[in-house]
Amino acid sequence: MGSRVVTKTFRTGLAAVLAATSSAPVLAQDTSANPASALETEAGHPGPARNIILFVADAAGVSVLHAASILAHGEPLSLNIQRWPHLGLSETSPVDEFVSDSANGMSAIMTGVKTRNGVISQGPDAVRGERDGAPTKTLLEYAEERGLLTGVISSQSIADATPAATYAHANDRGKQGEIFTQLFNPRFGDGVDVVFGAGRQRIGEQLGALETGFEQLAQEHGRPIYTSLEAVPETNRHPIVVAETMDVARATMDALDILQSSPRGYFLVVEWDAHTDDPQEGLQNMADFDRLIAEVQARVDLDDTLLLFTADHSFGLQVDGGSRGEELLAGYDAWKTTGSDEVIVRLDHVLINDTHSAEEVPVLAIGRGGERVSGYFPNTHLFDVILDAWGWRHD
Ligand SMILES: [Zn+2]
Asked: Annotated binding site for Mg(2+), which residues?
């Protein structure tokens, strides 16, 4: 009963807010401090999410989730994310082919624009390695523009395709030096606030070829670039870590320590590699990622936070045999010692075609705005799902 009164009062309030801001820039409305709790009472129209976390398991298609569940728990449907209420299937192709790489796959999610393989958040007018296309505005840039705190975490090089598509624009994913330097020249806001990834050696070499380096960038921009999570002082609220390897679980918890203090909410993207060219490694990564996601889920308030899980593209792995109680990856050790560079890998119960594949990947969602994930859709729809969850308009 009480809530009905609140609802009516609130609707009047919302109408007034909308009327007052209808001719003002979208920003005025978007950055207003309306708490989600006030908006959520509007019947049938849940209020906006305050925080969004996008978990990307690189190359984790439906079959990888299935196999990771069996490997880690002995049964299908045992991953935490497989209990989330909202499921869709996301189509990942670039504009001109059927099979996506990480660059196109993540760019499409982050910008709502499908492009070409190899291209980082530029339109399909880009020619890989030769000509820039129009930069396409990323969700992270939208979030920065509106004053949210932002974070990007990767188990891979922080300038590799998947993390790069959140903050950079480049005609070739291979240009990791150029991509990395874009962290220090953001187009919106003050750039990514928390950056935790690997790739120290590769990025360092490419920076050298551009006649710069970690030290030089750090000094020019007054932003230290640490070699490990442990080296970050607690007083640094905008840390960049480029390590040789990244502990994604710790990185995510460290990032949340900072992001959860944001007065306007946050956007966090976490990538964990789940390519199953080495099935033991890839499936274990997926299972570990799922455990991390469960920890994050326990730490956030799903009334004001949207959690999304997806992949940038799928991969050729298939469980085609085996029995309950048997080892899923029987035959793995023998393959690992003798034939680990074969393209087609025939284990006892698992067949691996060591390549990306074209079929749709799962999208799972829980929390504020998650109901927008449903049915089959192109991966560009995820851009709209996230913007809609925030209640923001497309530029
Ligand atoms: Zn990928």
From this structure: 58, 160, 162, 271
Beta bridge partners of 345: 352
Residue ranges of the binding site: 58, 160, 162, 271, 275, 312-313
**Residue-level pLDDT at 41:** 41
- Whole-angstrom distance, CA of residue 319 vs CA of residue 351: 6
- Residue 393 is classified by DSSP as P
CB 111 within 8 A of CB 122: no
Q: In what order do the strands lie in the sheet with 86-91?
A: 225-226, 240-242, 194-198, 149-157, 266-273, 51-58, 305-310, 361-367, 86-91, 375-378
> How far apart are the CA of 109 and the centre of ligand 1, in A?
12
Binding residues for Zn(2+): 58, 275, 312-313
**What are 216's two structure tokens?**
């030089």
Mean pLDDT taken over the chain: 91
Q: How far is the CA of 142 from the centre of ligand 1 (A)?
A: 23
Give me the catalytic one of 90, 93, 102, 154: 102
Question: DSSP secondary-structure letter at 261?
Answer: T
**Bridge partners, residue 226, by sequence:** 241
Q: Which residues contact 26 (CB under 8 A, 6 or more apart)?
A: 392, 393
pLDDT score at 1: 32
Query: What is residue 46's predicted lDDT score, i.e. its pLDDT?
Result: 62
Q: Confirm if 183 and 285 have CB atoms less than 8 A apart.
A: no
pLDDT in tens, 238-281: 999 999 999 999 999 999 999 999 999 999 999 999 999 999 99
> How remote is the CA of residue 105 from the centroid of ligand 1, in Å?
7
Of 71-75, 167-171, 194-198, 340-344, the poorest mean pLDDT is in 340-344
Taking residue 41's Cβ as centre, other Cβ atoms within 10 Å add up to 18
**Catalytic-residue membership of 78:** no
- The answer to whether 279 and 350 have CB atoms below 8 angstroms apart is yes
pLDDT band at 43 (very low <50, low <70, confident <90, very high): very low
Contact 172, 129 (CB under 8 A): yes
- C-alpha atoms less than 13 angstroms from C-alpha of 248 in its C-beta half-sphere: 28
CA of 59 to the centre of ligand 1 (A): 5
Amino acid at 220: E
Rounded to two decimals, the pTM is: 0.89
Distance 101 CA to ligand 1 centre (A): 6
Kindly report the length of the chain.
395
